[in-house]
Each structure stands twice: as structure tokens, then as C-alpha cells.
Design a protein that fits this description.
Keywords: Cell membrane, Membrane, Protein transport, Translocation, Transmembrane, Transmembrane helix, Transport. By secondary structure, the chain is an all-alpha fold. Helix content is 75%, strand content 0%. It is elongated, with a radius of gyration of 19 Å.
Length: 63
């Protein structure tokens, strides 16, 4: 494995540690709200990128 991808190698222990830290920081009641916000943000990003692609195609057709 190259040195570039070495820091990106996440195993099960690292994932468990991240989950525990997130639970400690935000608590169990805030997690669903945070995930809901993250999901809606991703949906808006996808919609905006699709809209940009259709706008680019229309501009290319008019040339």
C-alpha cells in the first residue's frame, strides 16, 4: 500500500472509536438530527449538480 493511502486505511477499531467519540460529544438524542441534516445536505448537493449538468447540456446544444 502506498504512503498516500496509508492514512485513509480505517479499520473496525478506528470506526468504533469514532462512533464512541461522536456519542460522547453529541449524545444519543442529537445523532438522528445531525444525520437528517447531513442527508438533506447531500440531497441538495446532488440536485444542484444534476441541475448544473442539464444547464450545461442546454448551453452546448444552443452553440
Amino acid at each position: 500500500m502506498s504512503a498516500l493511502f496509508l492514512p485513509l486505511a480505517i479499520g473496525p477499531w478506528q470506526i468504533a472509536l469514532i462512533v464512541i467519540i461522536v456519542l460522547l460529544l453529541f449524545g444519543g438524542k442529537k445523532i438522528p438530527e445531525l444525520m437528517r441534516g447531513l442527508g438533506s445536505g447531500l440531497k441538495e448537493f446532488k440536485d444542484a449538480s444534476k441541475e448544473e449538468d442539464t444547464t450545461d447540456k442546454k448551453l452546448d446544444e444552443n452553440k
